[in-house]
C-alpha cells in the first residue's frame, strides 16, 4: 500500500490530508447531531409538560440547566409569555436562525473537500502525463519502463482523488439530510411551545 502511495507522487499527500479531514469532520458532526437529537427529545418532553401545566418558571429553570440550541429557543419563547402569538413566534424565529448556524459548521468545508479531491487527482493525472511526454521528448520514444512511472502516477492520483471524493459526497449528503430533519424537529417543538403559551395567555 505504501509503495502504491509513493508511486502516486507528491499530490497524494494533500489527497490523504483531505481524506483524514473529511472523516474527522463527519465523526465530529455526527456526534454533535446525535447529542443534539437526544437533548431535543428530552427537553421538549419536559418543557412542553411543564408549560401545559402552567409551570412556566419551572420550564425556564429546566431550559437554563442545559446548553442546547433548543433550550435557548424555548427561553426566548417563555420570556414572551403573555404576548401575542406573532410576537412569540417572531422571537423564536430570530433565536432559531442564530442557533441553526453552529449546527451547520464544517459542512461547507466537507463539501469543498468533496469538490477539490477529484481536481487534485486530475492535476496528478496531468503532471504524470507531462512526465511521461517529457521522457518521450528526451529519449525520442521511450520504453514501457521509462514511461511507466509517469503513467502510473497519473492513474494512481486519479483513483485516489475519486476514492476520497465519492465517500465524502455521501457523508456530506447524509449529514445535510440529518441536519434538515433536526432543524425541522426543533422548529416543530418550538411551535408546540408557542401554541401552548398562546393557550396560557
What features would you describe in this structure?
The protein has one domain. It is rod-shaped. The chain is mostly helical. The chain is built from seven helices and no strands. Helices cover 88% and strands 0% of the residues.
In short:
The protein has seven helices and no strands. The chain has helices at residues 2-7, 12-52, 56-64, 69-79, 85-103, 107-139, 144-200.
Describe the secondary-structure layout.
Layout: H1 2-7, H2 12-52, H3 56-64, H4 69-79, H5 85-103, H6 107-139, H7 144-200
Helix pairs in contact: 2-3, 2-4, 2-6, 2-7, 3-4, 4-5, 4-7, 5-7, 6-7
Enumerate the spans where pLDDT stays under 50 for 5 or more consecutive residues.
Answer: none
Spell out the helices and strands N to C: HHHHHHH
Please state the CA-atom Rg, rounded to the nearest Å.
27 Å
Q: Which word captures the global form?
A: rod-shaped
Number of strands: 0
SS summary, helix count? 7
N- to C-terminal distance: 68 Å
Structural class by sheet pairing and helices: mainly alpha
How much of the sequence lies in strands comes to: under 5%
Q: What is the averaged pLDDT score?
A: 85
Name the features:
0% strand, rod-shaped, single chain, 201 residues, mainly alpha
Amino acid at each position: 500500500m505504501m509503495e502504491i502511495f509513493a508511486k502516486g507522487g507528491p499530490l497524494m499527500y494533500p489527497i490523504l490530508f483531505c481524506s483524514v479531514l473529511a472523516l474527522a469532520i463527519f465523526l465530529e458532526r455526527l456526534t454533535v447531531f446525535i447529542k443534539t437529537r437526544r437533548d431535543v427529545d428530552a427537553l421538549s418532553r419536559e418543557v412542553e409538560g411543564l408549560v401545559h401545566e402552567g409551570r412556566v418558571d419551572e420550564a425556564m429553570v429546566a431550559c437554563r440547566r442545559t446548553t442546547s440550541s433548543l433550550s435557548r429557543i424555548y427561553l426566548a419563547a417563555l420570556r414572551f409569555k403573555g404576548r401575542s402569538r406573532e410576537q412569540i413566534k417572531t422571537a423564536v424565529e430570530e433565536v432559531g436562525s442564530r442557533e441553526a448556524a453552529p449546527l451547520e459548521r464544517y459542512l461547507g468545508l466537507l463539501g469543498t473537500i468533496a469538490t477539490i479531491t477529484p481536481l487534485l487527482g486530475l492535476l496528478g493525472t496531468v503532471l504524470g502525463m507531462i512526465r511521461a511526454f517529457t521522457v518521450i521528448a528526451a529519449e525520442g520514444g521511450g520504453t514501457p519502463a521509462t514511461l511507466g512511472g509517469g503513467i502510473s502516477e497519473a492513474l494512481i492520483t486519479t483513483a485516489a482523488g475519486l476514492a476520497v471524493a465519492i465517500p465524502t459526497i455521501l457523508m456530506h449528503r447524509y449529514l445535510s439530510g440529518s441536519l434538515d430533519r433536526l432543524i425541522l424537529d426543533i422548529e416543530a417543538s418550538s411551535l408546540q411551545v408557542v401554541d401552548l403559551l398562546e393557550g396560557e395567555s
